[in-house]
Design a protein that fits this description.
Elements lengths: L22 H12 L9 H57 L4 H20 L2 E3 L12 E7 L9 E6 L2 E3 L2 E4 L1 E6 L1
Parallel strand pairs: 2-6
Antiparallel strand pairs: 1-4, 3-6, 4-5
Helix pairs in contact: 2-3
């Protein structure tokens, strides 16, 4: 058994443990010296508790890492969708410019190439147009701006696209504004 050195102090704070030492302090110091050191005690239950806490801590940290990774990925997706939503009006303006430049073949062709590049880039990121003309009206993907009587067309069928809608990986970014047959 390991001996713990004991120092005795008198009332003036000096070491020595002589006659000036209070009896109760002397007894406490002797009891402490006689008690076995914590390293000497064989407390297996305490070790098992520490192991269990360590395993729980590792599991908690692993869960934290998974949640943090998922949150980073979610935020990256939200950021991408935000940028894509900002680009969509630019594409619409380019399409209008292309329609206005129908008389000038060079400008029309240049705008066609630019739009094709935009749509190719959007497709690489999972963005596609919402199908409209000829499709049944779907309120989860379409926004009806008008209803018109139409002969030879089934009721609740989209007959005209006023503004295109876009989806990304099955998630609606913007509904298509459409005219529906009555």
């Amino acid at each position: 058994m390991m001996k713990i050195p004991v120092r005795y102090y008198n009332e003036e704070g000096e070491t020595g443990g002589g006659p000036g030492m209070a009896p109760e302090v002397k007894e406490k110091n002797e009891d402490r010296a006689a008690a076995p050191a914590p390293e000497d005690q064989s407390d297996r239950g305490g070790t098992e508790d520490w192991k269990a806490m360590y395993v729980r801590l590792l599991a908690d940290f692993d869960n934290f890492r998974k949640h943090a990774r998922a949150e980073r990925e979610r935020l990256a997706e939200v950021g991408k969708e935000s940028v894509i939503s900002d680009i969509i009006p630019v594409i619409e303006h380019l399409e209008r410019a292309q329609q206005a430049a129908a008389g000038d073949a060079a400008i029309f062709e240049g705008l066609r190439v630019v739009l094709a590049e935009f749509f190719a880039a959007l497709k690489r990121h999972g963005v596609e147009r919402v199908p409209t003309v000829g499709e049944p009206f779907d309120p989860s993907r379409h926004e009806a701006v008008a209803v018109v009587p139409a002969a030879g067309v089934e009721e609740n069928t989209v007959v005209e696209e006023v503004r295109p809608g876009f989806m990304r990986d099955g998630r609606l970014l913007r509904p298509a504004s459409v005219v529906v047959a009555q």
